[in-house]
């Protein structure tokens, strides 16, 4: 069986950076080298085969911000299994999503009311479960990562992303933000979210950009985390920067942290101005959607009010079309190479 594009990238990255630090789980001081990452990918791929995962099947994961999520994503796509990563969800929400997407496999870091045909341990308190009611195939000719929308008015809807989508999107993001394999990303973003997949998960696999993980955002530990891992990049959302504004001391901002990125919601101009005055850093706005991936980024050092969403990413074109109605128009986005 041919190796997937993501698995090939992972193997090449791990061969190049073998003993370097790949992932640090800050909450419990767990450290994985790239050798460790490759070994965990191979173990996860073996577990999927042993439990009877077939091409065309769907796996729902509820593992939180654990290092295991990185090899799990690659192993699923390499096995031809579509992945539906979930963040914080109630049991009822998880069961509804399993039913809606026809999932026959579940990876969970907690007990769920499921009827298992077979299960194996993947990590501490994390089990891979094949459901008794598993459907062998769902009709997908190729595997996807199903990036869920917010689901604020109904069950979430899935935006399907292929390996080519993921690799192209991350290439565009990395180029726009001038991020490379020597950077270290400090992240408290839920790894299941589209933002984190393109800005945290795939950069490690594709380019070897190391990651330091927090299970959730902790403003009081932010400076200590940056200094302990030498973080150079922090992708956040507006509420994180607003909290940091209230807790950061007047001491010099860590020299290593060169890039602050905000996405997910509009950023207040006052917060950008505060960071510029007190930390000598600009928070750069990033705009994208689950369906289209990254769209625009403000790479400039200009401080503006209102905050600028920047220019389209490399190889991304944006067009506003008149829909013939009373509205201003609809936004159409195309990324070349997908």
Describe this entry's structure for a reader.
It is built from nine helices and 18 strands. The chain is an alpha/beta fold and 338 residues long. The chain has two domains: 130 residues, Rossmann fold, CATH 3.40.50; 168 residues, ANL, N-terminal domain (Rossmann fold). The strands form five sheets. A five-stranded mixed sheet has the order 4-3-5-7-6, with helices on both faces. The chain has a five-stranded mixed sheet with strand order 12-13-14-15-16. Helix 1 packs antiparallel against helix 2, helix 1 crosses helix 3 and helix 2 crosses helix 3. The longest helix is centred in the first third of the chain and has 17 residues. The chain starts with a helix and ends with a strand. The mean pLDDT is 90.
Structural domain count: 2
Which overall shape is indicated by the principal axes computed on the Cα atoms? globular
- The second-level CATH architecture of the largest domain is 3-Layer(aba) Sandwich
Sheet/helix structural class: alpha/beta
What is the highest CATH level, the class of the largest domain? Alpha Beta
Largest sheet: 5 strands, mixed
Succession of helices and strands: HEEHEHEHEEEEEHEHEHEHEHEEEEE
Share of residues in helices: 25-40%
How far is the first residue's CA from the last residue's CA? 23 Å
Oligomer: single chain
Number of strands: 18
Please name the CATH topology of the largest domain: Rossmann fold
Tell me the fraction of residues in β-strands, as a range. 25-35%
Taking all Cα atoms into account, the compactness measure Rg is: 20 Å
How many DSSP H or I helices? 9
| Uncertain segments | none
Provide mean pLDDT, rounded. 90
Spatial ordering of strands, largest sheet = 4-3-5-7-6
CATH evolutionary superfamily of the largest domain: ANL, N-terminal domain
């Amino acid at each position: 069986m041919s190796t997937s594009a993501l698995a090939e990238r992972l193997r090449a990255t791990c061969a190049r950076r073998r003993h370097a630090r790949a992932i640090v789980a800050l909450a419990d001081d767990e450290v994985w080298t790239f050798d460790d990452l490759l070994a965990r990918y191979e173990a996860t791929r073996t577990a999927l085969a042993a439990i009877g995962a077939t091409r065309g099947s769907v796996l729902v994961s509820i593992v939180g911000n654990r290092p295991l999520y990185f090899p799990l994503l690659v192993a699923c796509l390499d096995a031809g299994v579509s992945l539906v990563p979930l963040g914080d969800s109630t049991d009822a929400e998880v069961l509804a999503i399993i039913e809606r997407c026809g999932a026959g496999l579940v990876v969970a870091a907690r007990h769920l009311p499921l009827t298992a045909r077979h299960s194996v341990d993947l990590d501490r308190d994390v089990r891979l479960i094949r459901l008794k009611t598993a459907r062998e195939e769902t009709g997908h000719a190729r595997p996807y990562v199903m990036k869920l929308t917010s689901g604020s008015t109904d069950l979430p809807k899935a935006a399907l992303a292929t390996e080519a989508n993921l690799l192209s999107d991350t290439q565009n993001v990395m180029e726009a933000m001038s991020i490379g394999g020597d950077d270290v990303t400090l992240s408290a973003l839920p790894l299941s979210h589209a933002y984190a997949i393109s800005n945290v998960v795939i950069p490690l696999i594709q380019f070897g950009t190391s990651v330091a993980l927090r299970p959730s955002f902790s403003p009081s530990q932010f400076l200590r985390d940056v200094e302990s891992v030498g973080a150079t990049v922090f992708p956040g959302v507006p509420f994180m920067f607003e909290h940091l504004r209230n807790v950061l001391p007047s001491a010099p901002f860590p020299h290593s942290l060169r890039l602050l990125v905000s996405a997910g919601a509009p950023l207040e101009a006052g917060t950008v101005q505060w960071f510029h005055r007190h930390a000598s850093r600009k928070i750069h706005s990033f705009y994208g959607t689950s369906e289209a991936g990254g769209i625009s980024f403000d790479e400039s050092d200009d401080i503006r009010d209102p905050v600028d969403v920047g220019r389209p990413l490399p190889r991304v074109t944006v067009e506003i079309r008149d829909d013939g109605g009373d509205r201003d128009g609809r936004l159409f986005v195309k990324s070349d190479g997908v």
